[in-house]
């Protein structure tokens, strides 16, 4: 029993350290943009344009995000591309850390439930006469 509790305590300690590191990562993440950045190639549709013969325009920096209930997609002005890339990467970092913290919290909760089972007394032993 004590050996089991010791292993659980060690695991909770490891998980807590990992969670602390992830919390620091979240706190130190720069500005975020809740969007996806990508580059796309387009066809403009002008009859004599090179894109009508297979040579598409691009790559054009683009973002997609949710705004209220709608999905919005738009091009990114060239003077904002670097900042947009950085902010969308920060968002990915933030979300990944957040997801991992959730998993850690769930695992810690399961370990606490194991502790409860180990420590829990038997009602039949208590009410014996």
TrEMBL record:
It comes from Thermoanaerobacterium butyriciformans. InterPro entries: DUF6788. Residues 13-84 form the DUF6788 domain. This is Cell division protein FtsB. GO terms for biological process: cell division. Keywords: Cell cycle, Cell division, Coiled coil. Residues 94-121 form a coiled coil.
